[in-house]
From TrEMBL:
Alphabetical UniProt keywords: Cell membrane, Membrane, Transmembrane, Transmembrane helix
Entry similarity comment: Belongs to the UPF0324 family.
Membrane topology: Multi-pass membrane protein
Record bears the keyword Phosphoprotein: no
Top-level taxon in the UniProt lineage: Bacteria
Annotated InterPro entries: UPF0324_pro
Membrane-crossing residue ranges in chain numbering: 12-31, 97-118, 125-147, 159-183, 190-212, 224-241, 253-272, 314-334
Database matches in Pfam families: Cons_hypoth698
Localization of this protein: Cell membrane
Name this polypeptide is given: Sulfate exporter family transporter
Annotated source species: Kiloniella laminariae
Length: 335
């Protein structure tokens, strides 16, 4: 027996996952290449590439690795997101602005849960789309979905949330800077508006710095504060579903990926890490998330996603308008 065959026999669980992990990683590379050379959101490209190959995956040897990537590698990516945020960045925001962002996030999520029933969806779907809209787009959708128990439609609803918020975030990146200038906002106010409303980090940075360096800095700080809110919101989601489960645990432990998120945030805040390590771990987080979303796409057919219907898109658009309206009102209130 060859060395490779011997290794496969000893570690069937690991070797059985390799084809699926490699396939998702290849799609992540392809999505990154397209984004780097032609622009556009990498996560959306990874998602679409994965969905285009969905029909080839069913019953293949890659399925075990795809399942592993969409769950475990996703959680690793979310945990590493914490390296992007330091406590000193959060402190820069100021108490008034921080409270406004917290209220805007909470109100948007509550609105999503309430409006979901109006549009014929369950509260779980409203919580997912509201959280994705309110916090940090696709990353929040993936994290909140990971905190929820699995269901028959969890993957396609997560996929829809990722597609919807990524698309709307790209539109907002183009439309919101002219809106901020039309409303007569200062550079700092415009940055707070952009960072407090646009869903994904990359689009926030692009929109902010398209106005001025000051606007870009303010947008980044506001956005990172919203990303930090992923921890308490996801903890709340986990606790809610744990209490609703058939067996209520007497002790509560947060998900490991949230513990990792807090750990990496604290590690960055020590100021001991060189910038090279911070940028490398941040890039690793991005690759984990892109690879995971490619795997989610591989598991989900476009037909299943379209079954969710146009009313779901209306829900996400309304959630987007709610948080935008709240932040615009707050900008004028703080003057």
């Amino acid at each position: 027996m060859s060395l490779l065959a011997s290794g496969a026999a000893r570690f069937p669980l690991i070797t059985g996952r390799i084809p699926g992990v490699i396939l998702a990683l290849v799609l992540a590379f392809a999505a990154t290449f397209i984004s780097d050379h032609h622009g556009g959101p990498t996560l959306l490209y990874a998602l679409l590439l994965g969905m285009s190959l969905n029909s080839l995956i069913e019953g293949s040897s890659a399925k075990a690795g795809i399942d592993y990537t969409s769950r475990s590698i996703l959680r690793i990516g979310v945990a590493l997101l914490g390296i992007r945020i330091g406590f000193e960045q959060i402190a820069q925001l100021g108490l008034d602005a921080a409270l406004i962002l917290v209220l805007a996030v909470v109100i948007t999520i509550i609105a999503g849960v309430l409006l979901a029933g109006f549009f014929g969806f369950n509260k779980r779907f409203g919580l997912l789309t509201g959280g994705a809209t309110a916090i940090c787009g696709a990353s929040a959708a993936l994290a909140i979905s990971a905190a929820m128990p699995n269901s028959d439609d969890s993957e396609r609803t997560t996929l829809f949330a990722v597609v919807a918020v990524t698309t709307l975030s790209t539109i907002a990146m183009v439309l919101y800077p002219p809106v901020a200038l039309w409303l007569g906002m200062s550079d700092t106010e415009a940055g707070f508006f952009l960072g407090g409303t646009i869903h994904d980090v990359a689009q926030v940075v692009g929109a902010g710095y398209s106005i001025s360096p000051e606007s870009g800095d303010a947008a980044t700080v506001a956005k990172l504060f919203r990303v930090a809110l992923l921890v308490p919101i996801t903890l709340f989601v986990t606790a809610i579903f744990r209490q609703a489960g058939p067996a209520k645990a007497s002790t509560y432990l947060p998900p490991l990926f949230l513990i990792g998120f807090v750990f990496f945030t604290g590690l960055r805040s020590t100021g001991l890490l060189p910038e090279l390590i911070i940028s490398s771990l941040s890039e690793l987080s991005r690759w984990c998330l892109v690879t995971a979303i490619a795997a989610v796409g591989l598991k989900t057919s476009l037909r299943d996603v379209l079954k969710i219907g146009h009313q779901a898109l209306f829900l996400v658009v309304i959630e987007t308008l709610i948080i935008a309206g709240l932040i615009i009102a707050s900008v004028f209130f703080l003057r």
